[in-house]
Every structure is written in structure tokens, then in C-alpha cells.
Amino acid sequence: MKKKWMVLLLTAAMTAGLAACGGGGTETADSGDAQTEETSDGEESVGGGELVVYSPNSEGLINATIPLFEEKYGVDVELIQAGTGELVKRIQSEQNDPYADVLFGGSWSTMNDNEDLWEPYVSPNDANVIDAYKNTCGFITGNVLDGSVLIVNTDLIGDIEINGYEDLLNPELKGKIATADPANSSSAFAHLTNMLLAMGGYEDEGAWQYVRDLFENIDGKICESSSAVYKGVADGEYVVGLSYEDPCAQLVKDGAPVKIVYMEEGTVFLPASATIIKNAKNMDNAKLFIDFILSEEVQNIWGSTLTNRPVLKDAATSEFMTPMSDIYVIEEDIPYVSSHKQELVDRYTEIFTDLQSR
Questions:
Q1: By the 8 A CB rule, do 337 and 193 touch?
Q2: Which of 64, 69, 93, 227 has the fewest beta carbons closer than 10 A?
């Protein structure tokens, strides 16, 4: 089978050119749907045809998913990779004549903010998803989870106890805590909302006092990126960092001198999304792909071989991943955070600026 994989290099000229392509009619929209064949026992099987997937996901997740889908269903997949923001802009420009069928990856809030771009669909497999991450809006399929965690350097920690957020206020850790900027880093912003929720609530004054106390202990040392946080801890530049599970679990797996701490006050896991693009030309295969990534087969592969955490209730997890049942999980109010993001960022920025001016 011929694989049409490419890495998308978005330029203004490409976007304009694709956007200018004519709008397809009803016949065109149906021409690429999955082939339906009758098996020897009289049952119908779905397979064949094409599927165009836009994705910001990692190579590991892509390589564990796309080839298996092609092999299992005989579908020829064209994969185009770029950042979530670039892909959403491209989908917006192609609304009158969509090129892709599925957006595989990206945050729930981004998809929710662009509801007009997506085809309503809830997979039958959604019934097996952890309740907090079910497709309740009707168009966003959560398929993999990533949680805010603390990463601790086991060579440097000594006798200091770190079990959660409160322990980060220890004066012995002043200037030894790594974090990115919540105003510019999605993982740092996720930690900001996690700590607010865990310490009292998004609008609770006591929770915001904790934010002030924490950043006073961070002592102005803000890493330039989310990767600099976990790398800085692993390299011994910091004792502890506010990071996210996927790369930290990979460091543990690779034998780095680090351990993961899930905050005893509560850890938020946020779902990565998958959506079907409105009026997709290969609609049947798009729905088949959504069903596929929520299947027990795929979720078990992800959970047992990758550092991505599956969303199915009983999916397998590898020995280096802590079972969800051993983690105190708290649920983010995703719609609230999405609609109040700028307010939360502005208040954090005000606190940080005030601390720096002293």
C-alpha cells in the first residue's frame, strides 16, 4: 500500500493556494468514503479508500497509530504534521472545501473555541472512556491524557520531603525550583490552574496567595521553555520542577536520576483531542479512525509501549507508569478555564511583576 506521509511546511502562499481551491459538491464529498464489502458470511466490513489526517502529535504516538490503522482497514492515510495553531488556521481557510478529514491532537480548549469547524460525532467506544473525559460536547474525542506533575532530582533532594504543592514553599528550595512562564507555556499554565484548583479554587484568594508564595520561592528563575524545566532537573540545575507527565515518564524510563511526584493536593489530567472536520470528504473513514483510536487494542498499545496515558477505564499501562488508581485526580473545569484564560494569566503576571519589583 502506498503511504502518502509528509511534514507540512505551512507558508502563506500554500495556505492561500489551498483556500482558493473550488468548493466541492455532494458527489465529491462522498467519493473518498470507506469501501463497504460483503464478507463470505454475509456481514459487511468497512475498509479501503483514503483518509487525510492533520496532526501535531509526537512521532511516537503517530508511529504507533497510523501504520496499524492502514494495515487493519486497508485505508491509504495522508498525514500532514504541524503545530496545532497552524493546523487550525489551515482548517479555517479550507472551510468551503476541506482538505483534511481528521485533526488528531491538540487541546480540548482549542477545539472548543472553534466548534464551527467540527462534525458532530460520538464514538460507540466513548462508553468505555473514564467518565471525566467522555465526549459530552458531542464533537471532541479525548483520546490520550497528560497530567501536571512534579519532577524531582533524586541525587539532589536529600532529606527534603516533596509530596505536593505545599512542600514547594520550603525555604530550602528557594531558587531551586524550575518552572516555565504560565503566560507563554501551556504546561506551566496547566500547573497554574492545577494549583489554583488544588489549593482552593480559581477565584479563591487563599489559592492566589499560594501562587504568590510559590513564585516568591521560585525567586524569579523562569525557564525559557517547558522542555528546559524537566531537562534542567534531570541535569542537576534544579532540585524540582513543575512539569508534565509524558517527558518526565520518559526520563524515568530511560534511567535518569529523577522521580515523578503526583501532587497530594490533587493532579489534573487534561485530554488531547481528536475531531472530525466538518463536511470531511472521507467521512466514513474519519469516523472509523475515531473509533479506532478509542479501541481497546490501540489504547492498550499506547498505554503499554508509550509514555502517553490512555483514556479507557481499564487500558493497560506499563510498569514505569503509575496506575491512575494510585493518583489523587481532581477534575479541571475546562470550559471555565478556557473562557477565563486571559484573566488568570493577567493576575499571575501582576503577581510576578510585583515580586520582581521588590
A1: yes
A2: 227
